[in-house]
Structures are given as structure tokens and as C-alpha cells.
Design brief:
It is found in: Cytoplasmic vesicle, Clathrin-coated vesicle membrane; Golgi apparatus membrane; Prevacuolar compartment membrane. By secondary structure, the chain is of the alpha+beta class. The protein is built from 13 helices and 28 strands. A hairpin with a 2-residue loop joins β16 and β17. The structure holds 2-acetamido-2-deoxy-beta-D-glucopyranose (NAG) (2 copies). The site of one 2-acetamido-2-deoxy-beta-D-glucopyranose has 4 residues, from α6.
Length: 632
Amino acid sequence: MRVEERLGLARLAVAVWLLLLWGGCEGRFVVQKNSLKVTSPNSMKGAHECAIGNFGVPQYGGTLVGTVVYPSANQHACKEFREFDLSFKTKPGGLPVFVLADRGDCYFTLKAWNAQNGGAAAILVADDREEPLITMDVPEEQKADADYLEKITIPSALIRKNLGDSIKKALSGGNMVNLNLDWTEALPHPDERVEYEFWTNSNDECGPKCDGQIDFVKNFKGAAQILEQKGYTQFTPHYITWFCPEAFLLSKQCKSQCINHGRYCAPDPEQDFSRGYDGKDVVVQNLRQACFFKVANESGKPWLWWDYVADFSIRCPMKEKKYTKECAEQVIKSLGVDLKKIDECIGNPDADENNPVLKAEQEAQIGKGARGDVTILPTLVINNGQYRGKLDRIAVLKAICSGFQETTEPAICLSQEIETNECLENYGGCWQDETANISACRDTFRGRVCECPTVQNVKFVGDGYTHCEASGALRCEINNGGCWKESRNGKTYSACIDDHTKGCKCPHGFRGDGVNSCDDVDECKEKLACQCPECKCKDVWGSYECSCSGGLLYMQEHDMCINKNTRTEYSWGFIWTIILGLAAAGVAGYAVYKYRIRRYMDSEIRAIMAQYMPLDNQGEIPSHTHASRGSV
Ligand SMILES: *[C@@H]1O[C@H](CO)[C@@H](O)[C@H](O)[C@H]1NC(C)=O
Ligand SMILES: *[C@@H]1O[C@H](CO)[C@@H](O)[C@H](O)[C@H]1NC(C)=O
């Protein structure tokens, strides 16, 4: 054990209590398991568990499909596959290759790096003993040749020995073994807000892990702040501390590594008590970061934490001996956060008392439910599930995005940089209209979806796969609503009508499906118009022309020819008739009047005369008189 040799006896004791603590935690450490589905051969079909490695780029929210290759040589993948003339590059039309490697002989990370360089899309490491799955992690040693760690982009998964054995057996029997590595359900409880925790450390001298952590904070800061400001996420930073066992309270080690009388400890950054910063310096800076978050959160700006941590790592690095209170306070002031409140929160590190913030952190360290204890630094916990994989901005963003229920994800999750680009090829198989350059394909971080689009405020409706059509007002504005339209000799006809909610209809004078074609109807040939004896019919595009022989006029609405003059003569004749009629009536009336007067005078005269001389028909006279008087 190299560490102990270097550190000497005194440190051995500390190492032992640390190991004891770690050992005690191991039972509660939850290995993040993912589903690995074997899709062929039939005899092996089914879901298995695998443990995603804590490096490489996982595909949270997505699935990776591939075929397994167990290399004929270099089966531990500890050497470059090039040396064995092996390549796993995907051939056109072929499935991506998952290299199956055996556990042992070298770091998991080196195996992944070699597989990646060999062209593999993922690496499966078969355990070399029967045991529960473990999480493959990055080596702790600060080795110079570890720069490749940052460059691992393929995902990795550890599988149980028996699954590895059956895959090997199937392959050697000439079977093709195809798998789905599935991250779609890796993070639980998707809803409209994602809660995530980042377990981190202000220490910047712990090798690749610290470097990766700082790079992550700098790269992820922007996205984290947008998500937090818009209320899509609730982020909390966390810091791990240990306590010093009572027997060691007065030891030099606990004094240099702990604050508040052994209550909160962190390992010495250089693992050397005699130089550089001590563990307790790290604890205090961690506490300052935790307090910064608390104060910033209370003032409603939790996202300032990202600025503080990024700025602190740039402005106050250990390497430049600036990892100090003064430097930290300058950064805090520059961000406009209340320094006094932070000082109050830190309290007195030498006092024999609890610090409420660190006490809460120690309690949070212990796993709750599905999460398990946090023992690896840095660790990202999303929706109470531990993220496994490289802390890469896009990979983490995908993981956070997969914690949202579909359709509730924020715009940043649908942005181009984390999408799958499946629409670039053949519009992802979705509906498309190439002439109008419209497609139903939409890339998302979950893969492509086929949804009818909304273009220039015009909503397309349909199943998205075979059919989408513009609907509502304005729909004819876009590609003429998908309907037929043609112009000839300055005339334009269209089969799209804006007030129709959908569909195409050939205009009057045309016949057809309205989508691909509308054909001119020959009204003359089909005897649809202009059929009167004097009519002469001529078909034109979209209509017809009708002329009448013999100086007659064609009246389209009646589809008949009429004499241009008839109409006026008739009306004059009519007027004359009325005038003459009126005159005749007047004359007739006058004649009747005259006749009546005469008859009246006659009867009057006869009545007078009757008073003086008896007349023959006496009986008639009174009634006659009476009647004649009454009527005129
Ligand atoms: C941050 O503030 C929010 C709302 O004010 C609160 O719900 C949350 O618990 C706070 N987080 C911490 C870690 O104090
Ligand atoms: C189609 O539209 C996309 C963006 O919507 C654009 O990038 C592409 O150049 C367009 N293609 C054509 C042929 O207009």
C-alpha cells in the first residue's frame, strides 16, 4: 500500500479511520444500474442489469443499439487494438460495435480509451468474478498519463460474469449478439422540475478529478443558471466532510484536518501535513461555498453560487497560494453578496460547537431511499438518482433534461447542440414537403419526433409520419396549403380556400383532386353551357366563351341569347299600352257617366210628369224614384 509507505505511521492511523468510515458506508453505496436489453439471439433475449461507468459520456434519456464483438486478442483491452490489427469501426449500414472486454490487468478507463480508439461505440466490461455489480470509476492516482480520461466519450458498462460468459458462448457459436443500452429510465420521477445536487469540493489539487470538476463548473455554469433562473431546476451544492473519531481528537492529524474540534474534517490536499494547505483549510473553504449558497439562496439568487465557485477557482487557486479567506472575500464582494451574513454562517471554526450548515451536510451524505451514500467526489445526483459518467456539459444537460416529463422540458433541452441530428437524414422518416422545405421531423435530446410543424403561424395537422396539412386561416400562404395552383396568361387559379379549415377543392371550371392537379373542364364538349341554337361555344382555360349569332346578346346568368332591341321596344310598347289603356278607361268611364246622367234625368222628368198625369205603369214609379235618388 503505497499511500501508507509515503505517509508514515501517524497518517496510517488517520487512513485507518477513514477506511473504517468508508468501509462502513460501502453497504449503503448504491450502484446506479441501467437496463441492458439483449435483442438477439432469441435464446438470450431479455433485460439484464449493468452498471454504468463513472467516466465516458452516457446517453441519458436515450438508447444505444449495437452488436457485441469479443476481440480475438487483447481481451482485457489493456493495449491499443491497433497493435493487433483490430478495428471496431461501424461499416456503412452496420450496427455500432460494443466491445466486450474482460475485467482486470489495467484501469477500466484505459480499457474504455482503447476501445474508443479502436472505433467501438461502447465498452462492456465483463466482471471476472461472481459478485454484485460495482461502479467502475476513474483512478485516484495523479498520473501524468491520465489526460486521456477527459477524452473518453464512449459509454461504458460493467456486466455480471455470467452474462459475459453467455455472450461469449453465443458469439463463439456463430451468433450475432445485439444489445440495447437503455438510459431512458435511468433517472427517476420525471416531472416539470428537476432537483439536482452537486457533491463537490473546493480543493483544486487532487488531480484529474479536481480538474474535471472545475472544468465542469465553468462549462455548465451558463446552462445551470438559465435553468435555475427560470425555475426549471432546484439546485443544491453539497460538501462531504468526515468526523474525527474521539480517540484521535487530540492528534496532530485531526488538528490539521478538522475544524470545530474534530467535527468536520477533510483530507489534506497534498496528502502531506508538513507543507501547503491543510485539510481544515479545505473544510473552511467548502463551508464558505456552502454558506455562500445559503445566503445567495435566501436573497433569491441561488445561481450566483456557480459564479462564485468558478471565479474562486480562477482567482484563488492553491497552486498560486491564493486559496485564502482574503481572496475568497474579494470574490464574494465582487458578486455583491453580503459578506457579514457569510461570516455569521461560517461561525468560529475553532469553537467546540456544531456548525448547522456542515451538520446538515453530514446528514445529507447518508443515502436516502434510492440514492445511496455519496462517497465519490464529484457526484451529481439528479432527481435523487446518481448520475454516472463523465461530468461533461452536454452529457449532464441531457441527463437533467431526461428528468423532465416529456413536453415540459425547457427550451435549452430542445436546443440544437444536444439534439440527435436524426432529422438531417431523410427527415428522420417523418412527413416532409420538399418543395416547401417543411418537415415534421424535430430533433430532441431524446431522439427525433415526428410532429406536424407550425410554420409562419400556420399550424399543420396530421399524424406527422405520412400526413400533415396546413389548417386554419392563412393556410394558403404556405405552399398554397399543399393545394394545386396554376397561372396561365396572367390568370391564376388555386384549389386552396382560406376559410376552409382544411382540404383542397378545385375552383369552378376545373376538376381534379385539388392537390396534384385540377384539369380544365371543357364546358362546350360536355354540353354544360352555351347550348342554345344561336350559341357558339369556345372553351378557354378555367372557363368558356359563348357568342350568339344574328346580333343577339349572350346572357351568362340565363345561358341564353336575346335580341339586343327587343327589350327596349317591349318596354316602350308596354308603356304605350298602359297610356292607351288609361285613356280608354277614361273614355269608357265618361261614356258611362253620360249615360247614367241621361237615365237619371229621364227618370226625374218622368217622375215630375207623373205627378200631373196618370201614367200606365204607376206601380213602378215610387221604387224607381227611390232607387234613382239613392244611387246618384
Ligand atoms: C433555497 O431557497 C428555496 C426557496 O426560497 C428553498 O425552498 C430551499 O430549501 C433553499 N435551499 C437551501 C439549500 O436552503
Ligand atoms: C430548408 O430549411 C432549413 C432550415 O429550416 C435550411 O437549413 C435549409 O437550407 C433549407 N433547404 C432548402 C433547400 O431551402
